[in-house]
Amino acid sequence: MVVTRADKETELQDLERAFKGTDSAIVLDFKGLKVPEVTELRRQVRGARGQYKVVKNTLARRAMIGTSFEALGEFFTGTTAVAYSGDDPVALAKVLTTFAKTTPALQIKAAVVQGRAIKAGEVTELATLPGKPELYAKLLFLLQAPMVQLVSVLNAAPRDLMSVLVQAEKQKSEG
To answer: Which of 85, 88, 108, 113 is nearest to 98 (CA)?
Structure first.
């Protein structure tokens, strides 16, 4: 299949839009992956609201110019793919590290998370963090706890008064 200059320019524009539209991306080496494994990887990445794209190294380096991903330029050698997500970099990192454990042919090279370049080892550490839904649940619990405690304290006085009145009535009826 012959790739024309127009195809390359279109691919370059797509990559530029992708890099400017996200703040987190993970660079992968997929050498040795079989087609069914790549298909499964793409499905899992889509499930994490991410994108997986096999890229040409020179086009990717050009597309990164002027973005926070310029630090990844040295990792665009050999067979390279990029997974990126604008929503939740932790969910994407979890999917990729889990898939890399079951399929050792997939190697994580490096990443940029919210504008900060990180190494492959740090991506696995990122995957151990709780995702956005879990963090929202914890935040909601922390915000709700003082209100719940206040309500229980305010309810305690009438409840204790009723308990005292019931005990006094019981003593009168026995006596």
So the answer is: 108
